[in-house]
Protein 1
Amino acid sequence: MTKKVEIHSLIPTYFFTRLVYNINKSVKKRIDILLFKSLEFQNAYGQKVKIIEIPVLEEENTYRFMIQLRLEAFIANVYRSRTNRSVYSFREHLKKVLKWPVYEQIFKETVLKHNA
């Protein structure tokens, strides 16, 4: 017996909300840090599955729509999967499927000089 599940109901709403940093500008804050969310649900076979390292992007980010579509496809794939894995990394999935320059633009990791 197959159970039909709407993919949009599995995606948390906080993933697509806009992030607002430093509203009153009284204190300087670092805003180049990328935030991650995780998602936990049961797949079609009743196993508890967790997807970690889901990037939270601002609304005006050019890659937001692409990440949203890739996340929906990844969730659908994990939902139907029969593997015994309980934790999936969305970041590792994107590393495999995206071109490297696009991946670097999404996950900009600044290298600090002299361990600063």
Note: Residues 7-17+28-115 form one domain.
Protein 2
Amino acid sequence: MPATVTNLTEQYISDRSESVATFTLPRKRLCLDIYGPLSSCLFDSSLERLVDYLIVPVPTTTILRNIDRRFPKCQSKNPADRNPCQSSLEKRQQNSRVNETASAPRGPDRTEKLPAEIIFIIFDNLELMEDALIFGLTCRRIWQFARRSVCEWQRKRIGPWAGEHLVAVSDHCDDDDYPPGLFSAEEINQLMERWAEEVSWRYDWESTFWRFNISSFALERVVQHITMPERTPLSRLRSNLDRQGRLPAALEDAIWPEIRVDKSVYAPADEVWMLRNLTTRELVRTEAVAIKQDLIHGPYIERRGFHHLLLIRTAWGNPELREITRYRNHPPVPCRGPWAGHRFEICTAKHHGADVSATGAEWSDVSGDAKAELDNLWEAAYGPDWRNVEWDHKRHRPPSPQWLLGAPDRG
């Protein structure tokens, strides 16, 4: 171990007990419920959940196609019913040819003959997804519309932080020190007044005892802490139907695979994914972030992912407390991240291409700069052979970097 590394151990222990980081949306007053020392979060998977919050899922039609590919039995046997987006005129013509000699339909058959426009209106006016699902069981043709409606409902609940102002805050920030452009002077004054009122009312303390700054957006009394729900929207829907006794037991196992939207269908690994900075119109591709290309699984990258890049580029804290790689020629971890307070999303190359075609906006590919920044930091941590460091699969993180050896382990 180099002597310079040993000299940093004491500095790391001090930083570790003082500099804690997490991701927050200051303007929305939301914060991840995961904290960790900045020095450690940079090299483990503590904050990888951020990727789930920033994903722009593939379109609903692609989701349905991916489900059908996974479960071929989900596809309707009637070609006219496989695509709910098919024009209503074409469907009516096909149905007319098939049933031109049939007698007037009765009962459920009338529902099956409804024009597509009417079916869409019905689904648009059903406020509860439970009602939409039950209505979809009327017949196979209606079920195709119900599948689309339920999948779109789930899709809208994916990536709730995409497009919002993001900051990786430290618990040590100076007063009146905010990322540029995040708040106006008037907004800051309003926040400070609200903070003073809350402190005085809740804790009977002098408002000047607690100063409001960007670190305050990681406090439970200031923001709502967000946890990844243990149950998906679909599982909650299923529980509601079970409790109401509205879904026939014989149909349960048959319908759920057809409408379950999970990562494999809304963030498929066979698509090309990228991180986009919507504020500066810059993008970073997955291959620039990944340590090895075989570790890329769509937007999810093993060992080193988009959340690591966002952590160092959106970090905001006191410079004197954040430098942990000050030896040799390696750059320090930034405490004034150039992307702090910017808006982001993780999307497919197809989504990006469609956006560029629609808006004509020019984007800069900064994958090379991002790769160099991450590689330099990892080499500073693990040495020249950093790509081949063995991973601790039990705890989902690599061993402690060289400068951390001898420091207390987080466990």
Note: The chain has 18 helices and twelve strands.
Protein 3
Amino acid sequence: MTPIQGLFAAASAVLLFLYGLQGFSRELQEVGGTALQSWLERVTASRWLGFLVGAFATAIVQSSSAITALAVTLVDASVISFRASLGILLGSNVGTTATAWLVSFKLTGIGPIFIVLGALISMLPIRARYIGKAVFYFGLIFFALDLISAELRPLQNRPQFKEWLALAEAPWAGVLAGLLFTALVQSSSVTTGLAILLVQQGVLPPQAAIPIVIGSNVGSTSTALVAGLGMSSIARATAITNFLFNATGVLCYFPFLRSFSRAMVDLTTNPGMAVAWAHLIFNFTVAICFLLALTWVEPLLRKWLGAEARSASSEPAS
């Protein structure tokens, strides 16, 4: 296979991975979309409950973009308050790390099993059909990961590719690359999945992958920012706050990023899991810090962003 053919094959596998993630998220929302919205509507009592619901919902549907966009929409419709949405947004950042763990476990060979199982279930009555489609797309995710791994393997011996990836070893370059690529593909799961696969193939050092994964958290906020356009000021404030949470986290971690990356690599002998741990610890610590300070941060954000007081019923600062 020529280098050009290999490039197109790898790109096709990445697109298949993205298609599988989007399909899996769409079918789960089709099955439980009403229940999901109902959960989100009930979180106005506590920021911590909102955090847990946001994390759980994102881990299930495998799409932080879908959850954050839904939160922005619910705020615009005055179904949930601005304060309640912040807990959901912080929870979704933690829930999105589930994809990194799935990839790091190297569950090779299971994709075709779920594809066949999902196809068989989809032949059943209507309700089961949606579940079958979700199972099918779940299998497609892992099948695409196997394809990506196969296409990346030959790159180990290409010095030009290694030289290009070596640029990402500078923390600022890695963060920027993760941000831009995630904004382009509209999925931080694709960015983290690819980064971990490159690490597992020995093509990319884990110290270089960690800044990319952390940068992807900022890039993933682009979906909510776009969703907030044309909505009320309180909805736009929700979308902008989602960006500010992630950007502030990156700025706080950035001076210590090299040390943090080395600590994560020393944490485990599995380089792929080192990246997954870094992703989880970054998002969890940022979320907890903002949750603890939300009583003081929320009024400042509302005033600074010029958000109107139009919102759902007020809630206690619990």
Note: The radius of gyration is 20 Å.
Protein 4
Amino acid sequence: MQIVSFCLHCFGFPISIFFIVINEFCERFSYYGMRAVLVLYFKFFLHWDDNLSTVIYHTFVALCYLTPILGAIVADSWLGKFKTIVSLSIVYTIGQVVMAIGSINDLTDHNRDGTPDVLSVHIALSVVGLILIAFGTGGIKPCVAAFGGDQFEDDQEKQRSMFFSIFYLSINAGSLISTIVTPILRGKSAPLLPTKLSVCLSMVL
């Protein structure tokens, strides 16, 4: 009986809370890590000028902060918080995979000169990936914190309050670490590594 109780609760918290916190850290690391080098990717890989790179970047960020409205409507009206998180996390991961594929030189570099031969393919994949990522990251945004709060009983007010502190710490930690680590990885002559790392972490979702 004690083993079962420990499996359901650890350090006074529901065991699901630890998965939620780790998930949020990985999601924020994935999102901000990709965003940290996004303009450079537009300029030096897709060969967009400064103006177009800036416009697309800010359009993507704006979309990420508009889609939470859609995620909240879907969660409240149809799927519920858990199914919305799972469904849109899959969309998020697919977007990261598509983005990673779009950043592979060899995909269209048939003469092996280090430059893509059909840039439009990479642009199309990158744009589709960004749209999927925006819907994924934005759609789960209003659901995760609320879903975490639902894991506690009515008499666990102290634990619930502590959870939200840890939850927002994980958000900021993931954002801070990724913003530092991703440019370093890019500077180590590994342009695809940040994207691949983002994909791997998004799959933890």
Note: The chain has one domain: 21-203.
